[in-house]
Amino acid sequence: MRSRIPGRALRGAVALASALALGAGLVACGGGSSKDGGSQGKDTVTVALRTPNWILPISAPGFTQGENAIFGQALYRSLYQYKLDGSAHYNIDPKRSMAEPPAVSDGGKTLTITLKDNTWSDGKPVTTKDIQFWYDLVTANKDKWASYRAGGFPDNIAQWTIKDDKTFSITTKQAYNTAWFVDNQLNRITPLPQHAWDKDSATGAVGDLASTPQGAKKVFDFLTAASKDLKTYDSNDLWKVNSGPWQLAKYVPSGEVTLAAQPKYSGEDKPKLAKVVLRPFTSDDSQFNVLRAGDVDYGYVPAANVSQEGYLKSKGYTISPWYGWSVTYLQLNFNNPKTGSLFKQPYLRQAMQMLIDQPTISKVVWSGTAAPTCGPVPAKPGANGTDAAGCVYSFDPAKAKELLEGHGWKVTPDGQTTCQTPGTGANQCGEGIAAGAALNLTVTSQTGFAATTKMFSEIKSQMSKLGIQLTIKEVPDSVAVTPACKPTEATCSWDMSFFGSQGSWYYPAFASGERIFATDAPVNLGSYSNAEADRLIEATQFSGDESALKAYNDFLAKDLPVLWMPNPVYQNSAYRSGLQGVEPQDPMNLMYFQDWSWK
Fold first, then answer.
1. pLDDT reported for residue 387
2. Where would I find the Solute-binding protein family domain in this sequence (predicted)?
3. What single DSSP character describes residue 212?
4. Residue 293's CB: how many other CB atoms inside 10 A?
5. Strand 571-576 vs strand 409-410: parallel, antiparallel, or unpaired?
């Protein structure tokens, strides 16, 4: 789910993530083009992006969409930022990060971190007190933190020590693979303005309330309530104190958002523009129509409109695919009390995977802008293609039919396939599947994406040829209505969920699966659980050997915790040719507006 789980896409920094889409929200109208710059002038850029709806830089369940990560990083810098070009130690971006790379000691168990000189927008220095404030909040409220997983951060911390205003150290309970810990644990730390936010909500007095667990819960509840009050985002004094290159100038719920350059920004990457306007749209088509009219400076070309790229280029736009460090999949609800028993049968998951023609869908539906997903570890960013070589389960309807019939199902092409031989024997349907049970399933998908609609039309057609009947239900936010759940909960009625119109999951720098495929992982919406998968995922956290990541990938590619789907580029970005600094586009699904400028 940026990580990006999903919403635009769920991100791993978060999100499930992710996620989710450029283009969902209100249709906004725009003015004409300016010959001096963009649609609103040479100091402003207009960007097609779904309206963010979470401002607190502590991720919350249901708010891990990619646009929230982009919005959050514009306002509140993380301790570390990352890049995947192979040039940086531990993938840490030295220019954007707020601290120096950690010094590792004690056999890899202790990491000592020194902050750079930075200030808040009100001129106060960023110190380890702001790091401690963040730590106190997430430790006392980890059950409400989307990035928390039992046994992970902060459970894996043996000692957290503030040495002085600029230096702190973290000692872990075990010696981890340092690359994993730096990329997938330290990426969560975001300094928070303790001097402005550590408030008593009743009196408004600022102090050290969060230094105790009870006080930290009160402060967290206060900040969470403010984060849910979208109509006050641009007026609440809380959000006027920030560390990022941008400040929030205007916010319209489900509408336009205006970011203004932060005049007191202390980072190296200072904004070159005065304003960035984020403009949402209801669908691919509505966004593309406005893009064609020249009323946005940065948008995207939907897969269904790739043939019109030539027209956009003739109008002064540059077209560039945005490759993601991501995978795309169809989530299966193993805990659904009615259909979960079906998904728990490996043979049935295999048969369904064999009915998804990834190469053809990638080529025809996504116009070559997607690549088959074969397992949980993504291909190198930029390596998109339509070849499914290497996938454990290729498109094979005949083999799928054999699997079903060999496990007690009466296959009725273009009809309804049913279980004829219930039981748990070798040639029977499996535990929990009654005689006469039908393969009749609902897919909850996203509205607003023409390519996604066409893709599921093709998959539904292939499934029906073997009597597997799919109902496709499109909703604005498929993540919100298909949560992780217990079989006894009313919310557990969903069968399959898709939130991958622009990638399902965007990884942090290290592509391990503890947040999406481990038992009880925070973004494991389908409640997949396998002891061997858990062991292999854990191994990637402790071993620096690349074979650990490969073993994890190979097992899950075969076991199918989800159904692997064509992985599209995040989007085919279209931006005015006079707009500089857009590329390279971040494979982890962030947008650095501060790098942008007009020629």
1. 57
2. 96-508
3. S
4. 14
5. unpaired
